[in-house]
Design goal:
183 residues; alpha+beta; Alpha-Beta Plaits; 2 domains; 4-stranded antiparallel β-sheet; 6 helices; 32% strand
Amino acid sequence: MPKNSIGLIELSSIAAGFEACDAMLKAADVELILSRTICSGKYMVMVGGDVAAVESSVEAGGRAGDFSVIDTFVIPNVHESIFPAIAGTSKVEMLEALGIIESFSVASLIEAADAAAKTANVKLIEVRLAMALGGKAFVTLTGPVAAVRSAVDAGADVVAQKGLLVNKVVIPQPRSELLNEMI
């Protein structure tokens, strides 16, 4: 995992995404985690490193991306479960309660997932980032009902503050078939 902080910039232009990525890498000593196109013609760049370096990098990317910037974040001390959830490598044997947060933005969704994981004792299942989703993103998580409600509320509040919340759901005692659909 890259140091202790991650930052992301989400852009409406692919060309601006490449330009922002270059500016981010030149601005500070950061590690490139993700740089790729996402659905509906958007582009995302995620970097990791020390907090100050990530902040400088995201700021430089924002300047380079200019009017194409949709959303950005810097998360200091990112929760360790974020990377396996993004990579789709989280191992879940059974669902207790199932929580879902859905966002119009990749950046706000990752912030929501981090807030959810830090709020309550839940397990992130997956963070799906705008691939075959029309540019939207969602996170799924599981745990005891009360913990899932608390985590989903905290994560959804982060997204709602940016006006990008699509929906949030908590399903107590979901049917086991739902886990098969997520993996």
